[in-house]
Amino acid sequence: MPRMISFILTQLTTGFAIGCAAGFLVLQNGFLSSSAMAGTLENYLAQGLFVYLFASTISMGYLATALLLEE
Fold first, then answer.
1. Contact at 8 Å (CB) between 12 and 56?
2. Using one digit for the tens of pLDDT, what is the confidence trace for 25-41?
3. Other C-beta atoms lying within 10 Å of the C-beta of residue 11
4. Residue 19: exposed, middle, or buried by beta-carbon count in 10 A (0-12, 13-18, 19+)?
5. What is the DSSP track for 16-58?
6. I need a labelling partner for 61 at 20 to 30 A (CA). Which of 14, 22, 42, 53 fits?
């Protein structure tokens, strides 16, 4: 695999993992009310999209920062 593709995939994966952890921590530390944490399908979907929002945003920022600092 070319070095640039490997670099991009590594940075996106690392940023996505950091974003998932951050989104999960924000979700679990009382960002949503306890009634929104109930076990219906819509709430699980909303929680998953909330974590994905953090993960995708942070992964793109992580990649952009890594590309900026790469020499």
1. no
2. 888 886 666 555 666 77
3. 19
4. buried
5. HHHHHHHHHHHIIIIIS-GGGGSS-HHHHHHHHHHHHHHHHHH
6. 42
Please state the φ and ψ torsions of residue 57, each to the nearest 5 degrees.
Answer: -65, -45
Quick: pLDDT tens for 3-19: 889 999 999 999 999 99
The reported pLDDT for the residue numbered 32 is 60
Instruction: Give exposure, 36-69, as e/b (b: 16+ Cβ within 10 Å).
Output: eeeeeeeeeeebeebbeebbbebbeebbeebeee
Report how far apart, in Å, the C-alpha atoms of 7 and of each of 2, 37, 64 are: 9, 37, 12
Res 62: pLDDT: 95
